[in-house]
Records
---
Amino acid sequence: MRTSMCAAFLLFALAVEPETVSSDNDCEHVRLDVALVVDSSSSVTRANFKKTVRFIDAILRQLPIGPDDVRVAIIRFSHGSDVMTYFNDDMDKDSKRKAIRKMRFNGGTTATDKAIKDLREKVLDSSHGNRENVPDLVVLITDGASNNMTATVIEANILKQRPDLRIVTLGIGDQVDRAELRVLASSDREMYEARSFKKVRSFVEKILQWACLAEYRVPPEKRTRATHRATSTTAAHRETTSTTMKAPEKETRCLLELNEFRKIMVEYLPDARRNRSRGTSH
Ligand SMILES: *[C@@H]1O[C@H](CO)[C@@H](O)[C@H](O)[C@H]1NC(C)=O
Ligand SMILES: *[C@@H]1O[C@H](CO)[C@@H](O)[C@H](O)[C@H]1NC(C)=O
């Protein structure tokens, strides 16, 4: 019985491309708290603010939003900041999309420092649904320099002390202060510049890539709420050396063999394919 089950597994593994077996490059199973911090200062203008709203909506549309997956908070700022939706306000995708589409332009100066302070003190807090053991992704969208760069840098540095937090910045238009955006972003790679609000749509995928990083993905065995007992290394070892195995242990052993087999296939197959294409190209 065990042998035939394993054989079936192995045949299945053989039939599937190793890439498909070993990874899933989708954004369906990420667990992340995403805070969008959106500039609504006068320089943005009402028309461009609408474009920003549509841009954010396009991002939200592609994220798996929900209490156990991606939680979303949105902050609009100018001279002050307003939280449009906290992580734990109606947590489904439709509600978050409604919240962003309801967000209106208000005008004023660019107090980025206050927005970052409010983000840290009010939004990235468990009382408002921020999860302690889940990474945070902050996306800051602005069209210009803040009122007080010193204050903004101080606030950004305090924020960056939080563990497991990434800041992605998107500057739009020609008034952007690159130096400031660079200090705000977690690194050069997390900093983007769109030449105009017209071009902003092409940055949807770039922002999404940060929300869909492999490190944010939830492994298949942890996707359901059902309690999953992980097999420790020693327990697994005992099971493979045991001669009288009970049914669940047999399954474990079969899975262990399958995992070994996958490893070999993942290493061997790409190599073999490369050799094959090398062979045919000459
Ligand atoms: C800018 O912020 C710094 C740090 O908070 C403060 O010391 C300084 O007075 C501010 N400058 C202005 C012009 O408000
Ligand atoms: C691919 O080719 C290299 C050298 O040409 C060889 O060492 C290796 O074993 C080959 N791999 C497979 C899977 O055939």
---
Amino acid sequence: MERKILLTPGPATTSDSVKNAQVVPDICPREKEFGEIMNSISLDLVKIAGGDDNYTCILLGGSGTAGMDATISSVINGKVLIINNGAYGQRFVNIAKAYSFDFKEIFFNWNEEIDIKKVEAELEKDKDIKYLVVVHHETTTGILNPVKEIGEIAKKHNCTFIVDTISSFAGIPFNIKEWNIDFMISTSNKCIQGMPGVCFVICNKDKLEKIKDNPKKSFYLNLYTSYDSFRKTKQTPFTPPVQTLYALRKAIDEFLQEGAENRYNRYMENNKILIEGMEKLGFKKALKNLKESRLLTTFWEPEDKNYSFEKMHDLLYKKGFTIYPGKIREKTFRVANIGEIYPQDMSIFIQSMKSILEEMNLKMALSK
Ligand SMILES: *Cc1c(COP(=O)(O)O)cnc(C)c1O
């Protein structure tokens, strides 16, 4: 198969073996055999998150946002504080609004670190707040938020702690238990390197039991309905994306084979080559002196009349690389280095970028 490299923060590049894992004989997902596959996926995802028997993993059909939607609509039953320093924090706010939940938002600029003292002051001031929500890796920019420290505050103030780890899970090692996370959301098509179509929520079982009698705000995306169905029958209440789950099974096998540390190190090596190469070409990173994921980098767009993102994108696309536009008001673009890609791919990307800059006649880069 032709190899295309996605330098987008999901879907990410997948291995041929993961792609091929989708080609299976037709099977009804109500079969025991399929229930066993889903069960093994759930158990492994809990383990990868650092959870034990006190945690369970709920698989849902849908993209990452379905997991956010399901978690917010199923768990929240009282006042929630949402930390917002990017488009995905904002998405949580939008979901809370859509369900008319009683929420408070604490806002930070895209180029600001979360001020933990401000978060804590909010919880001290307003004792009605029972839930705290944050994004781990804010894929809007690549900033990495201090989830461990926020988790300590959540615990101290008895808040149920909900974290979007959609673009960091399996990319950056962490431990759900040590970080006091009660509900952790992620998806099949980012650092775990599977196909899009499945999201999953890893839940603290005690906290999950407590949502049992919450008013059902969503009929389809309800965590307890899914949990209860699977627990009793090893079946999902609605048709799951069967082939995507086979691919996810394979992607997890490949993750376990590579190992969490090795995957992280590979991504870091990819990032090192990316940053060094891009800076040599004259590009500048948008985030300065902030803690970054190093899974995705935001670059300023060149100030040159010959520059256009579309043109750069299209020329790169012809060479087999896909990049992403920026997600903030300022003029930026983004390059991710997750997925089934290796340092050599990043070197080829830098070479391709260099020749494209020459083709576009961009002086800023050529002078370096
Ligand atoms: C990708 C992503 C999502 C979900 O996006 P979908 O398009 O629904 O898959 C949510 N949060 C973060 C931080 C993400 O990176």
---
Amino acid sequence: MSVQVEQYKAILAELHQVTLVAVSKTKPAEDIETLYRLGQRDFGENYVQELLDKQAKLPTDIHWHFIGHLQSNKVKYIAPFVYLIHGIDSLKLLKEVDKQAAKCNRRIDCLLQVHIAQEETKFGLDATELAEVVSALPQLPNVRVRGLMGMASFSEDLAKVRTEFASLKKMYDRFAHQSSDWNILSMGMSGDYKLAVEEGSTMVRIGSLLFGARQNKA
Ligand SMILES: *Cc1c(COP(=O)(O)O)cnc(C)c1O
């Protein structure tokens, strides 16, 4: 069995007031059921088709978090049920979520993804783009932006990772006054969640520590 049940319980016990999103991408539905039976309801997925397949066969009270890079043309497939979209990295994408949410007669919760890593490859808004998106929110009544999401550099240099998390927390605090909906800071993965929590994370996204290593999806 690849699900690390003891590890799951240990992580839950050390997180106080921090939501654990169990990142189940590439893992079978049975692994999700194992944690579901222990009470876990928040699961994170990165790929639209895989999420649709799992959503169709798993319990309806699961909170599905979309944490991957979302293409605008795929928003319509997840709009009816997605619980929180973590990776909003352009105004264009947020406008499409707003449009699809209206069609479903719902408001969709979203996080704005900020580029904090020094690496070039990661998606996300810079500080200027973030301010632009925030100022457009009054025109997007069908989305509710709850806060920010970010990924630190994949690095052994813990001081660097900590600095990146701290910079995200700073941006999060800067916009916190703009609405009472703003109360989620999604940062921290298997390798760096402890640091992230120390720096103010309210939501961690943990995959491999719970479900074992993944095969790379090429
Ligand atoms: C895959 C993924 C995670 C989980 O990564 P682990 O290192 O396995 O914990 C978290 N966040 C995002 C955005 C991911 O793509």
---
Amino acid sequence: MYLSKKSIKLLGLLLILVCTLVRCETQQIAAWRQQKNYAVNALYRHADAASGVALLQKLADSGVTEAHADLLFARLLGTGMTQDLETVAKDSAALVQEGEARAHTTQALLLAHNFTKEPKENEELAIEALYHYTIAAVKGDPLGEIVLAGHYARKGDCDSAMYNYKKAANFAIREISEEIVMSVEVKPYVYKEDYPKGAPKPPSPIEFEYLANLARYGDAQAAFQIGAVLSSGVPGVAKDQKQAAIYLQQAAKGNNTQAMVALANLHLHKMIEPNYAEALKLIKTAFQYGEVGAMTALGRMYMYGLGSLRRNLVEAIHFLEISVANGHLEALYLLGVIYDGPDGPGNMEDAIRLWEIPASLGHVHSAFRLAEAYRKKMEKAPATTLKLGSSYDVSERLCQKAMPLYRLVAMAGEWRHLMEAAYLDFNSGLHTQALLKYLLLSDMGYSEAHVNAARLIDNHADQVYEDENAMSTQSLLSWKRAANSGSPVGHLKLGDLYYYRQDFRKAITYYENAGDLPEALFSLAYMVEWGEGSLANFNAAKTMYESLAEKHGEAQFPVTLTLARMEIFLFLNNTCGIDLYKTPVNDYVIALIDIENLENFTSKLFVNSDSSNWDLLVMALLLVLIFFMLVVRQNNH
Ligand SMILES: *[C@@H]1O[C@H](CO)[C@@H](O)[C@H](O)[C@H]1NC(C)=O
Ligand SMILES: *[C@@H]1O[C@H](CO)[C@@H](O)[C@H](O)[C@H]1NC(C)=O
Ligand SMILES: *[C@@H]1O[C@H](CO)[C@@H](O)[C@H](O)[C@H]1NC(C)=O
């Protein structure tokens, strides 16, 4: 059968039309997908969450069903919209049926922390939660992948842990800019006391305002600091590269060389509309002043042939090596990338050596490259066990190196901004919103989140958990996680818990691991004094109290008080033969000066240590004590 010319033409036209429609459709879907990714990432950032929700709403209305699960997730965390746990609990079950990855994550978080209010045991809830996190992971939700990876890591299954962290890391690395170093990021605690010694704290609004004022009056260093804060974004101060550039510009005009490099880097990393000529000018000026960062930036420009500079690896290596000699992390990273590259002069081994330092310090891109390098070696390594006296598995050892690096990258994903968002919620009094965010981060293994979640449960969760038991179960869970992740305050809390349960041996172990926290040292001394968990030893306890006061100035007051009490005990024992450590009246005395009371006002003191009422308090307490002792005497006679 022959087709007429006309019908061939028509057929052709029809074909073209269909193709265009299909292409349009796939293009539309691709565009949606991209928009959805953007919107989901926006949910993690406090400043952008509302716009993320608006975009998701639009996508949902135009028929992108996946967006519903993301909206539900936003409602669960209270990010970009009002939190509503009951609605979420109802709707997520239905969405889970439809198989949305994020719906499984939502369901998992609800179950893991008993928000579905089912009369189930902890074990059972944990297993069901893990089941949903696992499905979320399999369906490609990076949050689920991280939770699952953590589960395998704790079980000692390195391969599975690495596999899941790697998946999340691959997703995360795309959004992570090359200068990010995780260890210098500020991780806010809701309680000031929880900051480990020397850890960076977010600037208070007053400090920030003060710096901004200094900058306004032309202080270049202050302008640089404000610019740096705005560029990285810290809790309470939203990231704003354009504003950052203005401050950095001002600082650069005041001859601040760090600001010149920082501003140049905003251009080089395309965080503002890049102007490579401007960047080069800044770098050259900073270079003349001998600023190390300028050499790295210049190396980067040669390495990638940015602006008017032609790509020139010899020049790049020259400048990067100067920076490397000065210990600049990013230079180590870039030099490694050149060595590992196809036209670099080195090989992967050289690159690995260079990346090891910045990776160990938390430089995310170095960690990622290094993890990939180890994994490549793993694939080549013989899987058999070598017998060399003791047996060890090459592949297992490489996994042990690669897995924590992938973890570092995975933890640096955009979702890490939920930590700041939660902190801001807490500051605005939105405790339940903060709690849900911290609980998710805690499930994902962020150690600061364990402590913050536990604090919020202890102090603000009574509306969430009507059931007293459910609440204390959750509190214990979070403190246990905190302790397991090495948090001193976690150990202290578990020590207290076991102390009240009269399990003194366990209490002592936890107190001893509480990293020299004054409250823990105090409890240990107290236990020695009263013979709890060991034989009572008056003098040893005294020494312990004294050394505590020497180590921690802020413990001076409770220690003085305690030592005074011990003197009275000793005096009564020696002169009247009343051993207050043995008499039944103990209970009263303890009730009066027991650890909880002391803890209460020591904790107040630690917060408010310049209070001038100490002596009054001491006297009042001693008076009450003497009164009790008189009562005891009367009873004895
Ligand atoms: C910056 O340095 C230049 C050249 O060294 C100098 O002329 C200028 O006065 C300096 N500006 C400030 C604000 O210190
Ligand atoms: C979960 O909550 C319910 C109701 O509030 C309670 O009966 C149950 O004991 C809780 N489960 C756990 C493990 O705390
Ligand atoms: C109290 O006195 C008794 C008997 O004199 C003595 O054995 C005991 O060690 C004394 N206790 C303290 C704490 O000094």
